[in-house]
Amino acid sequence: MSAVPKTAVQPLSVSQLTAQVRGTLEAKFLSVWVAGEVSNFTRAASGHWYFTLKDANAQIKTVAFRGINLRLRFDPRDGMEIIARGRLTVYDPRGEYQFIVEELQPKGVGAAELALRQLKEKLLAKGYFSPARKRALPRPPRRVGLVASATGAAIRDMIEVFAQRWPFTELIVRPSRVQGEGAAHDISLAVRQLNWLHRNNKLSFDAIILGRGGGSAEDLWAFNEEAVADAIFNSNVPVISAVGHEIDVTVADLVADHRAETPTAAVVALTPDRQELLAALRDLRTRMGDAVERRIRFAKQHLDQIASRPAFRLPLQRVENLGQRLDDTNERLARAARQRLVQVREKLAALSAQLETLSPLQVLARGYSLTHTNDGQLVRDAGALRPGDLLVTRVASGVIRSLVTDAQGTEHEHSTAHGEPAPRGAG
């Protein structure tokens, strides 16, 4: 065992040593600017940020507490180059020295510009800027909600232009701050309140105009806040963003259903011009009157032409002419019928004479006769008859009925002529 030193030494505890180191660091590095790259960024449930600042040769643990974070317009990310102002301290439980951030800004680009870029990327990914979701503006509108500063020129200009162009639109003004701290919250709340009235059938809106006059980019910053973008995106009523600055395009402009360069331009986009409509109506009335007069003149000329025709000057002449033509036609038809009847009679007489010449009765008149069996069969061959058959013989002046006692055909006569005996039973 080693011997206890004779000189009494009072050692420091780890906590005491750590406290002395922390005191030295905090006194020496009470406020210092540090530039570096963000690494291992973590967002705690408490709202605090924990990350590491590093360069090519060293690194330091860094903490940004919630109160600081809420004032920042952008979110640090791994790989981002930043410049931070803060103080050095020691975290006693782990004996690590760390950098406590009190101010933070991106390196090489302004914090506001970076915050705007990040918000646009986020909203683009969520579909806030999609043209497919943008709605057409009703024209003309019956009721419009105006969100603007109660004391600004924008609200007066919009009301005046509405009165000039289309005074029939009912205007509901919801005053709101349009710049400075709390303006974004007030604008988004105004849009939500008007939508609540619309959804609950308290007041039905055709459109909502977010209006303000021109200003610097800082003045217009309320229209670049995510709260305003959310309110516009979730609106049941079409929204017109009328931020009076033609150069800067705000997030509200990108999310809204329609962007107008000025509040006055928003009213023009939403309403017809009453004077232009009245002038157009007067012109239409004049053209319609001219067209009616031309139509009347044409109809009168056409009527005069019709009235000058013979059918209207001598209305019975046409009937008389047609009656006379009908009589002529009847006479021609009767004459043609008589001629046709004579021709038919002459032809019938000729055919009768020809038929008479061919008639069997003429043959009978010359001494011939026709013999039929009792059932009407014409007798052409005597060999077909048998003794006892009844015959009917027609002569020119009557009918003779007879009974066959003997019938000999041509073949029998031929055989008998040559000395051959006649067949038995014939005759």
TrEMBL record:
Q: Matching Pfam families, A to Z?
A: Exonuc_VII_L, tRNA_anti_2
Cellular component GO terms held in the UniProt record: cytoplasm; exodeoxyribonuclease VII complex
Record InterPro entries: Exonuc_VII_L, Exonuc_VII_lsu_C, OB-fold_nuc-bd_dom
GO biological process entries:
DNA catabolic process
Under catalytic activity, the entry for this protein gives: Exonucleolytic cleavage in either 5'- to 3'- or 3'- to 5'-direction to yield nucleoside 5'-phosphates
The EC designation for this entry is 3.1.11.6
Domain Exonuclease VII large subunit C-terminal: where?
A: 128-351
Taking every annotated instance into account, which residue ranges of this chain make up the domain OB-fold nucleic acid binding? Answer: 12-104
Q: Which residues form a coiled coil?
A: 319-354
> Cross-referenced CDD domains, in alphabetical order?
ExoVII_LU_OBF
Q: Which domain of life is it from?
A: Bacteria
Could you tell me the keywords of this UniProt record? Coiled coil, Cytoplasm, Exonuclease, Hydrolase, Nuclease
Tell me where in or outside the cell this protein is found: Cytoplasm
Q: Where are the stretches annotated Disordered?
A: 405-427
Q: Which GO terms describe its molecular function?
A: exodeoxyribonuclease VII activity; nucleic acid binding
Q: Which family does it belong to?
A: Belongs to the XseA family.
Q: What does this protein do?
A: Bidirectionally degrades single-stranded DNA into large acid-insoluble oligonucleotides, which are then degraded further into small acid-soluble oligonucleotides.
- What is annotated about its quaternary structure and interactions? Heterooligomer composed of large and small subunits.
Which HAMAP family does the record associate with it? Exonuc_7_L
Please give the name of this protein.
Exodeoxyribonuclease 7 large subunit
The scientific name of the source species is Gemmata massiliana
